Amino acid sequence: MTSSRPAVLVIGGAWHPPACYDPLRVRLEAMGYEYYCPQLPSLGAESRGVTFADDVEAIQKLAVRLFDQGKEVVIIGHSSGGLLACDVTQGHEVAQRAKEGKPGGFRHVIFLAAFFVPARGMDMLQTLGGAWPDWQIAGEPYTKGHLLRLKDSAKQKLFSDLPDSEAQRLFESLLPHSQDAFETPSNFIPDDITMPKTYIICEKDAILSIELQKRLIAQSPGFRSESINTGHSPFLTEPDEFAELVKKIIIAD
């Protein structure tokens, strides 16, 4: 177990602006953790053509600034943020940076009800079987420059265990997402990660079934796993319990 308290870097899922994660921010900051959740370049109405690589570059730029201050970082990838949580760590684990005489680095990856590609060179769309879910509005695959939007039916998928009024408020805060970001290959997968990695299963998830989450864990050796009895976004429905779970994972290192 390391004695230093790491910073926490959250990579949000598709369509989710950083404000969606504020309940987690408030609680982790109260526990004494530095907290970061940058808005991804691929998020928003002006994000047409922005790719996965652009997101990786932006997150790594923030992370390296923290590393150069001597900080170690725990990264949390929620939903599609799990793909980014893999790629951004490449070459930036604490042990790897130490070998180069550099301070700081990523020390733990937490996947929260997260997607990741099963093989290098695949993208999100391929992982979904080549077709976008019927609750999304997408352009023709691989034709570039489209925004990925949500149908009204997505509200119940994303916020299945929230009161309808709260689910509606959150749904209205979601933003379009660059489709190109999910049609760009990922070249670093959980198998390539050598530091501790934990997958948090959301047992009532209406986006990723519990069976799918368990299959994802089984595909990659070395995962620790935890569970929480919520839908896709425990930081919204059970923020106290979820923050305590994150703390438990961090201090177990």
UniProtKB/TrEMBL annotation:
A Gene Ontology biological process term: proteolysis
Chain ranges of the AB hydrolase-1 domain: 8-244
One Pfam assignment: Abhydrolase_6
Cross-referenced InterPro entries: AB_hydrolase_1, AB_hydrolase_fold, Pept_S9_AS, Sec-Metab_Biosynth_Hydrolase
Claim: Hydrolase is one of the keywords in the record: yes
Isomerase among keywords: no
Record GO terms (molecular function): serine-type endopeptidase activity
Keywords, in A-Z order: Hydrolase
SUPFAM superfamilies for this protein: alpha/beta-Hydrolases
Protein's UniProt name: AB hydrolase-1 domain-containing protein
Organism of provenance: Pestalotiopsis fici (strain W106-1 / CGMCC3.15140)
